[in-house]
Amino acid sequence: MITDSPRLGLSVSAVLGAALIWSSSFAVTKVALAEVPPMTLGALRFALAALILGVAVHTGPDRRRLPSPRERLFIGSAGLLGITAYFALENVGVDLATASDATLIVASYPILTLVLSGRAEFSPVRLTGMLLTVGGVCLVVRGNGTHSLWGDVFLIAGGVAWAAYNILARRDRSGASPIVVTYYQTLAGAGGFVLLSLSEVDRWVVPSGANVLRIAFLAGLCSVAGFLLYNYGLRRLEASVAVNLLNVVPVAGLVWAVVLAGERLALVQVLGGAVVIAGVTLGLHRKKTRGSLRRTDTEGHLESAQ
């Protein structure tokens, strides 16, 4: 256990900083999508993120411990699922629905990941949390028009893709550092997005200065800085503590949706969000054992880790 209060405070601040960065991504994405098509936005965001990570990997100490070509192929396949497939569904969902809907629905992803991975321990408390989470998502979706409803469907499908990514990523045996794994996943994900963006050629325009800044924010802060901050915090915090700190994401995300995207929240959305957060908190509960909460539980909560 860490008893150094200043260092512990830095770790908590790092995780909270990552959460606040990630919570803003939906609102920033929503505003950018008014000008940049969904697949093109993904291509620009992750190509820039891959460039930043590539410089860090190939100039840092990790350059001597890169995975083999076969291991890179496996890591890349996870990137196509966790970055290309997931964020393509998320971008389309945010485009059709609202940033606030995305924030609240994505809050349910940890439970979805636990269920689909088959690693959930179905204690009465956890089962209650899972049911509450589902009910909260239903409240968020309830009352939306058909246009927003389809967006919510895409966001929920994105949750399935994210859960599948977590299951696949856990099978990585390369032993590479997190930043190296993230680099190769992001590189593959960016490549997938570039191919998808070709379907939007007729919608391509030169981004405005404001959108260039938004894309840089999504790439540099949401996809790189947030990840580094979170992993710094995990070095000195129990995974269960980090997960609880990440519950600030849907709350802060609603604030960003109002401030940045100019959205108005319905009372049923606020109620649904509160139920989702309560459900996630209960759903991640585990009986105390010798070890702390498995990191796999934490991984399921990294909705916007990139």
Explain how this protein is built.
The protein has 14 helices and no strands. By secondary structure, it is mainly α. The chain has one domain. The chain is globular and about 50 Å long. It starts with a helix and ends in a 7-residue tail after the last helix.
Give a brief rundown of this model:
About 75% of the residues lie in helices and about 0% in strands. By secondary structure, it is mostly helical.
Radius of gyration: 19 Å
**Main beta-sheet annotation:** none
* Nearest-integer average pLDDT: 82
Oligomeric form of this entry?
single chain
The total tally of domains equals 1
Strand and helix map with partners:
Elements: H1 5-23, H2 25-32, H3 38-59, H4 69-96, H5 99-106, H6 109-117, H7 124-141, H8 146-169, H9 178-197, H10 209-234, H11 239-245, H12 248-259, H13 267-283, H14 295-299
